[in-house]
Amino acid sequence: MNRRTIILGTNQGTLVDLNGTTTFNIPNARNLAKEAESKKRNVRIYVKTDGTLETGMTNAPVDTTNVDLLEEFKVNRKVEAVGPEAELMSFIHNSPNIKPDLLKLSDIKWKYLVRSAVRAKNIMMTGPAGCGKTMAAKALVEALDRPHFYFNLGATQDPRATLIGNTHFSKEEGTYFSKSAFVTAIQTKDSVILLDEISRAHPEAWNILMTVLDQGQRYLRLDEAEGAPTVEVAEGVSFIATANIGNEYTSTRVMDRAIMDRFTIIEMDPLSKDEEADLLQKMYPAVDMELIEKVSEIGYLTRSEVKKDTARISTSISTRLNVEITSLLQDGFTLPEAAEVAIYPFFSEDGGMDSERTFIKQIVQKFTGTEATEEELFGQEKEDETPAF
After folding, report:
1. Closest-CA residue to 121 (of 92, 158, 86, 161)
2. Angle at 99 between CA 330 and CA 148, to 5 degrees
3. Contact 249, 239 (CB under 8 A)
4. What are phi and psi of 13, to 5 degrees?
5. What is the DSSP letter of 315?
6. Which of 99, 136, 297, 383 has the fewest CB atoms nearer than 10 Å to its CB?
7. pLDDT by residue (tens digit) across 242-291?
8. How far is it, in rounded angstroms, from Cα 234 to Cα 219?
9. Three-class SS of residue 99?
10. Euclidean distance between CA atoms 312 and 355, whole angstroms
């Protein structure tokens, strides 16, 4: 038998193994079982390499010796999910098969992300700047192929206008209300709404979102007046927020605990140097792999340094920045040139030879094979010594 195939028996409308007790979470399982029982046959299931299934009837005996496949689909309970629920559970379980290759996120976190979205949960993705939070959210939207809306709360100057709308007056129509794009978004069934940079949002935006994000309320009040009309959040709507949380992010606000409690948290981890090198190579295959590895190593060293108690730098080189550096290499810049325009401006010159920029320049030198002059290190020419008389 093909190693990607299992043959299951039936027991009162469910698919079972040789013991007749374990049911299986396979799309259309109940109909397959009923058909097999009516024809007095067994069910053959072939698992394709992309995770999809081919099913059919067979006279072959029950064969459930393929343990790996059994573990994928078995449900250790007597009552089996059926119909749409069974299909949904199967989709969640097999979701790593639709994870984009460029997204460096563990399968378990991706699976949790997909499950939260299809169950209409609120998700907050946290992690350092440039680690891929927004990329992961957008990858999820593409993978689910659902209606989606994007709102950058960090750039919102007027939260009420952005999240609710504005009242206008015209001679022809008099006073009328113009609803925001956010109102349209929350009224769209099964939509995914990305709330980017929620940690930079104005506190008024958080106040407006309180009832929207509360699973027990799920409505938007259009006015603070008593009896003001409300807009209900449509069925299946999922909110995904991104947040930078930590002392490094001085423009962020301390997140209101009541807002945070309305989300499930998914932490985005910085990439290892090998993961980052693989990502950069896939994005820019024309760039020499040796150069890519140097870029990744420089970033890794800064991330390691910033974690130390006695760190000599206050920030690190993010994956987002390394993507930009590698794009410069593809456009013909040398590594020293790319560092000059893309890396050094992020680090302060204050402190002379003890400055953060000097430290970063010394790291870069290790990978360029050049000795920097004092002018290159400190941004100024070395003063001539005054001769003694």
Report:
1. 92
2. 95
3. no
4. 85, 10
5. S
6. 383
7. 887 644 443 445 677 888 888 988 888 778 889 899 999 999 999 999 99
8. 9
9. coil
10. 8
pTM of the predicted structure, to 2 decimals:
0.63
Beta-bridge mates of residue 177: 167
pLDDT of amino acid 336: 94
Residue appearing with tokens 């560092």: 339
| Dist CA 87 CA 116 (whole Å) | 16
Rounded alpha-carbon distances, angstroms, from residue 63 to 18, 60, 98: 8, 8, 29
Give the pLDDT score at 25. Answer: 67
Classify 129 as helix, strand or coil.
coil
Give the residue from 261, 129, 143, 153 showing the smallest Cα distance to 192: 143
Residue carrying the six token digits 């929620």:
198
Contact 125, 242 (CB under 8 A): yes
How many residues belong to the chain? 389
Alpha-carbon span 358 to 123, nearest angstrom: 40
Residues (pLDDT < 50) of the chain are 1, 76-80, 246-252, 374, 376-389
385: DSSP letter = P
